Amino acid sequence: MGVFLPLAAGGFATDTAINFLIVLASAAVVAIVLGRLRVSPISGYLIAGVILGTFITHDESVDAVNAMAVVLLMFGVGLHMDLHTLRHGARQLIVAGVLAVAIASLVLLPLGPILGLGLRGTIGVALALSLSSTAVVLRLLQVRREMRSTTGRIALGVLIVQDLAVIAMLAAVPLLAPSAHDAASQARDGLGGLLARAMVVVGGMGLLIFAGSAIVPRLIQAASRVSTEVMLVTSVAVVLLSALITSSLSLSPELGAFLAGVALASTPFRYQLSGQVAPIRDLFLAVFFTSIGMTVDLPSVLANWWLVPVATLTLLLLKSMSISLAVWLSGMTASLSIASGVMLAQGGEFSLVMLSLLSDQSVIVEPARSIVIATVVASLVVTPILVAWAHPVGVLLGMRAGPPPWARDVAAVPETIDNDPRPLILVIGFGPIGRAVVDRLPADRFRHRIVELNADTVRRLRARGIDARFGDGSNPELLESVGADEAEAIIVTIPDDEAMLRICRLVRTMNDDACVVVRAGTLGRGNLARTLGATHAVVEEVAVAREMSEWVFHELGDTDVPVPEEPETP
Question: Considering Cα of 8, then 12, then 14, then 15, what sign does the dihedral take?
């Protein structure tokens, strides 16, 4: 592997900086151009890497960033694995996800001989391609506002199970390429050595799980009392420590990162952390996907160009059929099953992670490796079309069929997010104003969800059974996770005008119909908030002047003016 430009100046690694500049600039330009054609950024990064790889070689200086990208990706997956929700969630969706991974892995095995792979390579590629793209599909569903639809919830359930299956797949990769050295070592160690190693692994994992459940949440809570920045630094340190521990146990570092995410998934800090880690993760993933594209042997792909469309069409057909069958067997109707299968027929980001590891273990080699990556890229490029046509295709092909005979009484997929018919009101900020607002909204008519940056306040509210989430309301990923897209009303009571304006702008990109009422410090900020999407802006200056005048009129005996309410002591 070579570097791009071997330069250095004044102790600054200029060559490394130039390498990253070229990678990021190329990825950004291609992603922007393809974004005009509604191609996902992941596809843009991969295509940028393929183009870049024809001129320069892959640089080893980006390998550390690639490893960090996968670790943060697995941490993000773990953060969304709330075990309490899974225990009380939809068993139907879990069954659908497990069947989808199993059936798709078996059905995709014929791709191996088409690509000229051996048995081990065929198994590895089938496992990799059984995974769909969580990032691309969920983003498209959010844009189309179908996350809360029945098909959206089915897709989410299958994607969650696929992400969980990645853990087992990553652990199985070394088993597909056992070396002669490992076999000889195991023979020398004998049964006693294997048992000793197994005890070390089990003991280490037990300590890691105990620390994750008993120590890590308290540590993050202590950090949150200082600032969100300290909480982020502490969390990333915990992730890296967990990854190092599992790596020292001869397990994958991705498993450690995943467990760190799971340890925080049931805490009120998960939403804020997810939003804070997301920009760092996305930056690293841009480098990761671009570097994968750079390793594609374009001459090999061009020499076997006909294999890419054949493999892509085979992947889309076989995978859509297998996922449709899995969802139908779990008890869904035929139309919903077919729509879900079409929507999830592409390869995914974890497919690329798996392919990278399979290549490192020499399980797959050129030209098959480059052709499989090109197939994943092609499937991601057509994903917007798949999502757009999923419902019409499902209705057309499944209109004459219902659910399987053993599930005739199942009307639809159970709700996995919220089944409460009361309108959702999102209250951002629970200081004196936020508390007074919630007290005035009758609980029998509305359900309240509170977003607050004070960890102690959130803890007390949750102890009382109140739906409170920790985090910064101007964090876009946090707003998505707390349901800004489905809220009937969003009330912003925080005293920070700049954050309030950012929230107005973000909310209107997610929800055009919600009533957005904000608190503004000055009349100018209130007018600006209305131009950014606020329905109403309550200006402190005006509100204070109005109440002061009402008190004066009341004291002077003007009975036409209503008596202002005295604030209650918290």
Answer: positive
Neighbours of 223 (CB within 10 A): 21
Give the Cα separation of 1 and 58 in Å (integer): 6
Q: List Cβ neighbours of 338 (8 Å cut-off, separation of 6 or more).
A: 320, 324, 393, 394, 397, 398
Domains of the chain: which residue ranges?
14-205+276-398, 424-555
Per-residue pLDDT tens over the stretch 338-394: 999 999 999 888 888 888 888 888 888 888 888 888 888 888 888 888 888 888 888
pLDDT at 412: 46
User: In Å, what is the CA distance from 64 to each residue of 70, 106, 288?
Assistant: 10, 34, 10
Peptide bond into 404 cis (omega under 30): no
Domain 14-205+276-398 classified CATH 1.10.3720.10? no
Whether pLDDT at 473 is above 70 = yes
CA-to-CA distance for 222 and 507, rounded, in angstroms? 30
> For the domain bounded by 424-555, which CATH number is listed?
3.40.50.720
- Could you give the CA distance from residue 315 to residue 292 in angstroms, rounded to a whole number? 20
